[in-house]
Design goal:
It is a single chain. The chain has 2 domains: 92 residues, no CATH class; 70 residues, Arc Repressor Mutant, subunit A, CATH 1.10.10. Helix content is 74%, strand content 0%. The chain has 8 helices and no strands. The chain is elongated and about 65 Å long. The termini are far apart.
Length: 182
């Protein structure tokens, strides 16, 4: 408990570390989620304090720690922001605007030629997919969200996401082969 209190005391003295990381990430006090991100940054700072092995005896050691903590807070929050942004993009994107919503085809076809090419790519992809992957792809193209697919197949959403990533990898492999042979 004493270690946690020491870490929190250090945080209170050096809150600017977290505020600086938030500013660098573009999260200002008027941002709607500012308090949530500040609290998240504090927890990351305290987590880093608990992991830090060098003794914090003296101003130079504390300065070194805070520079490293700033970087740790910044990078951790940046990763979390990217995940949040990615989730929001997936939720906001129309279900069938692109095959698997950026998991496979980047844009929906706009011409007859592109439509024919997309159908050919889908046939090639379906030929190398497992039955489960094929079913996930079919349900996704039918407009079902991950939760709906999970319910239909009686698996977890994480399993659906894993299968979508497998489909994505196979699609990218097809694209790479086409590029190399093209």
């Amino acid at each position: 408990m004493a270690v946690a209190q020491k870490g929190f005391s250090l945080f209170l003295e050096h809150q600017a570390v977290v505020y600086g990381a938030l500013a660098k990430l573009g999260i200002r006090p008027n941002h709607s989620d500012f308090q949530d991100w500040r609290d998240e940054g504090m927890l990351v700072y305290l987590n880093y304090f608990n992991r830090y092995r060098d003794p914090l005896t003296g101003e130079a050691a504390i300065t070194k720690f805070n520079k490293l903590a700033w970087r740790f807070v910044f990078l951790t929050l940046m990763q979390r922001m990217q995940k949040v942004r990615h989730r929001r993009e997936l939720e906001e994107a129309p279900a069938n605007a692109a095959v698997l919503q950026t998991t496979t085809v980047a844009t929906a076809p706009v011409s007859l030629e592109q439509s024919v090419e997309l159908k050919l790519q889908l046939r090639q992809l379906e030929a190398i997919l497992t039955p489960v992957e094929r079913r996930v792809l079919q349900l996704r193209l039918a407009g079902l969200p991950d939760a709906g697919i999970a319910g239909e197949l009686q698996v977890s959403r994480q399993r659906v996401l894993k299968v979508r990533k497998q489909i994505q990898a196979k699609y990218r492999q097809l694209e790479l082969e086409e590029f190399l042979n093209g």
